[in-house]
Amino acid sequence: MKKVIQIMSCEEAIKSIAPHSRVMVGGFGLRGYPEDLVDALAASGIGDLTIISNDLGSPGIGLGKLLTNNQIKGLEGNYYNWNPEVAAAYNEGKIKVNLLPQGTFAEGIRAAGAGIPAFYTLASVGTELAKGKETRTFGDKEYVLEYALPGDVALLKAEKADELGNLVYCKSARNFNPIMAMAAKYVIVEVGEIVAAGELDPECIVTPHMFVDVLVLKGR
Amino acid sequence: MKKVIQIMSCEEAIKSIAPHSRVMVGGFGLRGYPEDLVDALAASGIGDLTIISNDLGSPGIGLGKLLTNNQIKGLEGNYYNWNPEVAAAYNEGKIKVNLLPQGTFAEGIRAAGAGIPAFYTLASVGTELAKGKETRTFGDKEYVLEYALPGDVALLKAEKADELGNLVYCKSARNFNPIMAMAAKYVIVEVGEIVAAGELDPECIVTPHMFVDVLVLKGR
Amino acid sequence: MEMSEEIAKERIAKRIAQEFRLTTNRLFLNLGVGIPTMVADYVNNANVFVQAENGMLGVGPLAKSDEEDWQLINAGRQMVTMTKGCSFFDSSVSFGMIRGGHVDATVLGAFEVDEAGNIANWIIPNGKQLGVGGAMDLVSGANRVIVAIQHQDKKGKSKIKKSCALPITGFHEADLIITEYAVFAYEDGGLVLKEIAPEVTLEDIRMMTEAAYKVSATVKTMNVA
Amino acid sequence: MEMSEEIAKERIAKRIAQEFRLTTNRLFLNLGVGIPTMVADYVNNANVFVQAENGMLGVGPLAKSDEEDWQLINAGRQMVTMTKGCSFFDSSVSFGMIRGGHVDATVLGAFEVDEAGNIANWIIPNGKQLGVGGAMDLVSGANRVIVAIQHQDKKGKSKIKKSCALPITGFHEADLIITEYAVFAYEDGGLVLKEIAPEVTLEDIRMMTEAAYKVSATVKTMNVA
After folding, report:
1. Spatial separation of the C-alpha atoms in residues A107 and A75, rounded to whole Å
2. Looking at the partner chain, which of D74, D91, D141 has a beta carbon nearest the beta carbon of A175?
3. Is D101 on the interface with B (CB under 8 A)?
4. C-alpha to C-alpha distance for C134 and C151, rounded to whole angstroms
5. Taking CB atoms and an 8 Å cutoff, what residues of chain C touch A1?
6. pLDDT tens-digit profile of B45-98?
């Protein structure tokens, strides 16, 4: 059971993150990521984190701060070329990296949220990213078995929430946020605005409040 | 490639359905199913169909008409207790039935649309519905392997479309329609209204027009 | 023991509602057809949010005749109402909620349950039924499974069996069994009698129950108000 | 052969655009970073709908300075505009489109391609890169894969190889390879030269191409306008 939705400061919300947690962070290329929450996490110094996110921002910007601060033990994600410090830290053996094709990464997150432990996909078959992975033929094609990617905590960004915790997003800032809301046990969302229950169109709510624990207001 | 969206009569649209086709039909309990299209399909007499739908309406109502007309070779779906003629026809050996848990049925349709050939689920493990199915243990639980459920044609119901073919739905009439739009090769949608492109909020479009071939206006 | 079916069902629904009435946490609840749907009428707690597997979170009370909306039904095809903050989604998202463990509790009717916590509620193999609905997904996916069941069938035979004879919906899935006369919890691999109705004795329950069970050291009188 | 990189890239983008310019069907197109993004500028066909894997269908031209919207980017992090009828969705839906075969064509840059249709475009193992993006999903999922690539590297070595040396993104996935000097199709298990630029001869192409290929009986002059 989730508590009734709680509205907190970033600092308060971040206290739910223990060292060694698997932390999912929404966003793609510095858009749609929870800027204030990430800053608070960086300021907290909480370490040994596994960060599950598409990318790791840029050097010293966004999630990049966590690497600069040595708070990261491992990464599960898709694209770190926007932050060359990731390859450097990986080469030095400072961090582990589970690199996945973007679609496999997205589907693994959705699978975790939807109770699917594993699924098959064509992407990466035969490549270095499929090394050591199980494959299986369906029809005339070979597929690779991929697993659900669950999180302990998710730090997300949405445009607007209602008091219950229902969420809507803005344009391409939606990206991984809705599926991460389903995949993590405890979900903290940074929003621009909180409106009364009933003000969001029930047909247009993207993330039902079933998937949300805490709201923080951006800029507070 | 899909043709530019076509607006047709039901009779014209139904011509794309060949005998022996796998026809997906949206709806749940006579809500959110394409009434005019189903009537046109019943009137056409096209036979040997495999109908992929949650249920089969009621005797002589909605999809029930197709059974009364002997147009059905097989069913893939979830719940036929609302139409006792289904059990009767099955017992007489007139039709084949692939009965699936509702969540497995929904996920199989989504998987077909999303290029996932197979996935694992807890539902039905150890039961009669899992007889002969492959199982596998992940963690400490046993799961059953289930397969994608693709369609040749989908007959769907939406509340409103724009000229491009983007769709929005109404309340619990949404049900299986959005995932069937992804899972069938050719998608025909009965809508109440067609508006100009740009009139639907891009944040609220549920089915992008990538998944839609033909629109028919209900009541025409 | 004589009790009309109507009164029995109402009592079961009311007792189940007590499981949810006082929660100060949000509780996401899926209700099956029959007695379970009646539970919603007695919950009266704004923290309880009803999910319908046909694609809705925040299902309100059954629609009165002037509120009926053809396109707004629950999974039992009853016309329902919306609550503030309700949302709609497709069937794959709905079962993602269920399979993914986001639904806190499901209340289901059953033909039989047994002392292993097995539930039989999807089919009586009499050739007249062919349907499973969301029951298998719900019993395996929901965090807590509450079985709403009359204690005995019309011939007076126990529906709480040593071992289900009918096809099973889910194995070891029942967490709580609530009848008009008793409340059993499934604990440490077996049934434990937790409550009995005011008008019956422990011996009465023993007589009307086929399954083996332990009697809780703190067995209480069931609140049937 | 002397051609500035800028002119070469523009020529490649323009030639690729010809593949889409006349379609009277709707064509759903995903464009990679670099030359592929430039393709959109030359298509001018309202039937072509650009999909961005970060969750948008109906991507418009790059935003001018007064149109810039921080929350509206393509997968290359460029600020873009919306077209009428565009829509937004999450990353799992976006890759459902791609993996599910709903994207008609993808245009991708590459480090190398080879005569088996293999594409190497995700990593140069120099220790400075660690990222794959959507390339593996796109080459395996899109119905038609068009590789936009300069014919030779800066040292004059062919980028159309006998066999890729760099890590492969997808095996046998290239359908069309378009350089500033030539168009190759992958047909019947091998490369076929279909077009050559006006200023080069078949012998020039032979000299600058490492991969084996057949020359089409109907080889044409590439339209470079």
Report:
1. 17
2. D91
3. yes
4. 24
5. 23, 25-28, 104
6. 999 999 999 999 999 999 999 999 999 999 999 999 999 999 999 999 999 999
What CA–CA distance (Å, rounded) separates C112 from C122? 10
Q: Would you give the distance in Å from CA C29 to the centre of its chain?
A: 10
Flag whether residue A118 sits within 8 Å of chain B, measured between CB atoms.
yes
D174: Cβ contacts below 8 Å, ≥ 6 apart:
D113, D117, D118, D119, D145, D147, D186
**Strand segments (E) across D69-140:** 80-88, 105-109, 112-114, 119-120
For residue D53, give the nearest of D26, D28, D27 by alpha carbon: D28
Instruction: Locate the chain C residue with the closest alpha carbon to B128.
Output: C167
pLDDT tens string C113-145: 999 999 999 999 988 999 999 999 999 999 999
CA dihedral over B14, B15, B17, B20, signed as positive or negative: positive
How many angstroms away from the CA of B67 is the closest CA of chain C? 15
Distance CA(A193)–CA(A176), nearest Å, equals 20
- Greatest Cα pair distance, chain D, in angstroms, is 51
For residues C195 and A202, give the distance between their C-alpha atoms in angstroms, rounded to a whole number. Answer: 41
What is the C-alpha to C-alpha distance for residues A169 and C155, in angstroms, rounded to an integer?
57
Longest dimension (CA), chain B: 55
What are D151's two structure tokens? Answer: 């014919």
Torsion of Cα atoms, B157 then B158 then B160 then B163, to 10°: -70
Long-range own/partner contacts, residues C121-126 (CB < 8 A, 24 or more apart): C121/C32, C121/C147, C121/C169, C122/C167, C122/C169, C123/C166, C123/C167, C124/C166, C125/C166, C125/C167
User: Across all residues in chain B, what is the average pLDDT?
Assistant: 97
Structure tokens at D215: 């020359």
Q: Which amino acid is at D49?
A: F
Residues in chain B with pLDDT < 50? none
Nearest residue of A to residue B106, measured between CA atoms: A114
Residue A119's alpha-carbon distances to A135, B119, C95, C128, C150, in angstroms, are 11, 4, 16, 36, 41
Q: Is the ipTM of this complex over 0.85?
A: yes
* Contact criterion met (CB < 8 Å) for D102 and B210: yes
For residue D141, report the phi and psi dihedrals to the nearest 5 degrees.
-100, -35
Are residues A116 and B120, on separate chains, in Cβ contact within 8 Å?
yes
Subunit partners of chain B (3 or more CB pairs within 8 A): A, C, D
CA-based angle B104:D88:B163, to the nearest 5?
A: 95
- Residue B220 confidence (pLDDT): 78
Task: Provide the residue type at B148 as one letter.
Answer: A
Q: In this complex, how many residue pairs, one in chain A and one in chain D, have their CB atoms less than 8 Å apart?
A: 136
CA-CA distances (angstroms) from residue B54 to B96, B112, B188, C28, C140? 15, 16, 18, 24, 20
CA distance A156 to D69: 20
Q: Is D37 helix (H, G, I), strand (E, B) or coil?
A: helix
Strand D144-148 vs strand D105-109: parallel, antiparallel, or unpaired? parallel
The number of residues in chain B equals: 220
- Tell me the residues of chain A between 155 and 184 that have a Cβ less than 8 Å away from chain B: 168-171
Long-range CB pairs of A134-138, under 8 A, 24+ apart, other chains included: A138/B117, A138/B118, A138/B147
DSSP state, residue D123: -
* Tokens 């009697």 -> residue: C215
Residue from C73, C144, C72 nearest C108 by CA: C144
Residue A111 contacts B where some CB pair is shorter than 8 Å:
yes
Label residue C77 exposed, middle or buried (CB < 10 Å: 0-12, 13-18, 19+). middle
Active site amino acids of D: 53
pTM for this model (two decimals): 0.98
